[in-house]
Write a structure and sequence with these properties.
The structure holds two protein chains of two kinds.
Chain A: H1 25-30, E1 39-40, H2 47-51, H3 59-72, H4 84-94, H5 100-110
Chain B: E1 3-10, E2 31-34, E3 38-44, H1 53-67, E4 73-74, E5 79-81, H2 84-93, H3 95-105, E6 108-117, H4 119-129, H5 131-142, H6 148-177, E7 183-186, E8 195-202, H7 206-220, E9 224-232
Helix pairs in contact in B: 4-5, 5-6
The chains are: A mainly alpha, B alpha+beta.
Main location (chain B): other
InterPro entries (chain B): GvpL/GvpF
Family (chain B): Belongs to the gas vesicle GvpF/GvpL family.
């Protein structure tokens, strides 16, 4: 899917990725104008692509996986090593300009704030990014 | 034969319908059903049409082509009218509502933003800032992983802390993104993302938004993946339709 349309005068989103349709599939499937008197084609098969995100995965596996992931983390190696003050300085210098500047610094600063405990998160078994799946039927 | 509806535009829209292919294995030509001030872009729906990936792509491509030349109200994927006459009646009956929806979207497009933590990075952040969890982690490590029960309890505490990070980072990102938009709507939950939000953005604001996302990606890319998609047809900002 080409997310950008040539004739449009909008500046191209350099930050935007020419994603596959999969990246915005949930919008095409769940959003858009609905007119009650009309029907909808069968989505059998298509729904399989998105149902994934709507299943709450049993959490025991998740907990064990987190525990194992934490166990193997090397906390002495800061890897990305940018410390918080540096980060804030960088951002303000490089300039997210204008009105976003202060807020941006604020947000970056906030990363690493004390953690506010909250309700639990769901999870699954994919390795790289954190997962939260909540049961929420399509509207 | 039923009529597949892609989207609505003003009657004055140029409606260049030659290039794009519609839904179905052997797509019927696109055409317009015109009514009082409003036009619907449609094609004949093949008998027994069942949605396939190809059809989703066709739906999206038709809308994007229309967006290039004017404002469009994207229909939800898969919308079928029993026939053209029914569609025309519907357009005439609610033409005022559709005109109003169209006006609200002039010069604006939807941008979707998704953010997901890199797991190791966010877990490291959690442990770095929570002494009790860090100590518990050390104790388990010293005990060669501990018992299954201990690991589970510890993992649950990590999960709770993680949810806190997710909520907080989502709120912070939104606070940064929001000023570059005129409206927002949370997207449906998607696998992995702690933030899925659609913004309605003025064409003139789109550059700022892209720049902001780029800057953020540079600064906090080590912690999360941040993606911006758009301009998209305004799927998330058309739900004030009659009877919905």
């Amino acid at each position: 899917m080409s997310v950008m349309t040539e004739a449009r005068t909008t500046p191209n989103t350099s930050a935007g990725r020419r994603g596959s349709l999969y990246d915005v599939l949930e919008l095409v499937l769940d959003r858009g104008l609905v007119i009650d008197v009309f029907v909808r084609v069968s989505l059998v098969g298509i729904e399989l692509l998105t149902i994934d995100a709507r299943i709450v995965v049993a959490s025991v596996d998740t907990y064990l996986r987190f525990a194992e992931a934490c166990n193997r983390l090397d906390l002495t190696n800061n890897g990305n090593a940018t410390t918080l003050p540096e980060l804030v300085g960088d951002v303000t210098e490089k300039g997210a300009h204008g009105k976003s500047k202060g807020a941006l610094a604020g947000a970056v600063e906030a990363i690493g704030d004390t953690i506010r405990p909250s309700r639990d998160s769901g999870d699954d078994d994919k390795p790289r990014s954190t997962r939260s799946r909540r049961k929420e039927p399509a509207e | 034969m039923s009529t597949y509806v892609y989207g609505l535009t003003r009657s004055a829209h140029p409606l260049k319908l030659d290039g794009a292919a519609g839904v179905g294995a052997d797509p019927a030509p696109l055409r317009a059903v015109r009514a009082d001030g409003v036009a619907a872009v449609v094609s004949d729906a093949p008998e027994g049409l069942r949605a396939k990936r190809r059809d989703l792509e066709a739906h999206e491509a038709v809308l994007e082509a229309l967006m290039a030349d004017g404002t469009v109200l994207p229909m939800r994927f898969g919308t079928l009218s029993p026939d053209d006459a029914t569609l025309e009646r519907e357009l005439n009956a609610h033409s005022g509502t559709y005109a109003e929806l169209l006006s609200g979207l002039d010069g604006r497009a939807e941008y979707n933003i998704k953010a997901a933590h890199h797991e190791d990075a966010v877990l490291r952040e959690i442990l770095r800032h929570d002494t009790a969890l860090r100590e518990a982690n050390e104790a388990l490590r010293a005990a060669d992983g501990g018992t299954a029960r201990e690991r589970m309890d510890f993992g649950e505490r990590v999960a709770v802390a993680l949810e806190g990070h997710r909520e907080r980072d989502a709120a912070r990102l939104l606070a940064l993104l929001r000023p570059h938009s005129v409206a927002e709507r949370p997207g449906p939950p998607v696998d992995g993302a702690f933030l899925n939000v659609s913004l309605l953005v003025e064409d003139a604001q789109a550059g700022e938004l892209a720049e902001l996302v780029e800057t953020l990606r540079g600064e906090i890319g080590w912690l999360m993946e941040l993606n911006l998609y758009g301009p998209l047809p305004p799927y998330s900002f058309v739900d004030a339709a009659p009877g919905t």
